[in-house]
Design a protein that fits this description.
about 40% helix; alpha/beta; Alpha/beta knot; rRNA (pseudouridine-N3-)-methyltransferase activity; methyltransferase; single chain; 5-stranded parallel β-sheet
């Protein structure tokens, strides 16, 4: 199985990038994890919010295959306990999903065509975080899901 994280913009804070890399290195090799950072749009100050979302959507959709299982990280998504998140990853593996794609959008979220393409929406919290911090939290939860699926001790359970 492949896990792909597509996000808009790069992580420009070195301490966060180091933490993200730390957890990415802990992910199992058989998950074939990859992070793709789509560069911020040029001249975005000259674009409206909807124009930015549309241009970002074009760039994102170019990276997604028709058979990919797409999960948006979205404030209106479903919140899951870590064990339920792990079980959902296992369920997708059992269904022989070849590639799970997690999407972290730009500052204005996603265009309608991205919502239409998504298979699920996931929220990490009701609180608001920077998009860079969301990358760290997601990758840590992927690592935690792997640990849970391996039967390793999980927190206080």
């Amino acid at each position: 199985m492949n896990i792909l994280l597509i996000c808009i913009g790069k992580t420009d804070e070195k301490p966060l990038e180091e933490l993200i890399s730390k957890y990415e290195k802990r992910l199992p090799s058989h998950w074939n994890y990859q992070r793709i950072e789509i560069p911020d749009l040029k001249n975005r100050k000259n674009l409206s919010e909807s124009q930015q979302k549309e241009k970002e959507a074009e760039l994102i959709l170019a990276k997604i295959n028709p058979t990919d299982f797409v999960i948006l990280l979205d404030e209106k998504g479903k919140q899951l306990h870590s064990t339920v998140f792990a079980a959902s990853i296992q369920e997708l593996m059992n269904l022989s999903v070849k590639q799970i794609v997690f999407l972290i959008g730009g500052p204005y979220g996603f265009a309608d065509e991205i919502y239409a393409r998504a298979n699920r929406k996931l929220s990490l919290s009701q609180m608001t975080f920077t998009h860079q911090m969301v990358r760290l939290f997601l990758v840590e939860q992927l690592y935690r899901a792997f640990a849970i699926l391996q039967g390793k001790p999980y927190h206080h359970e």
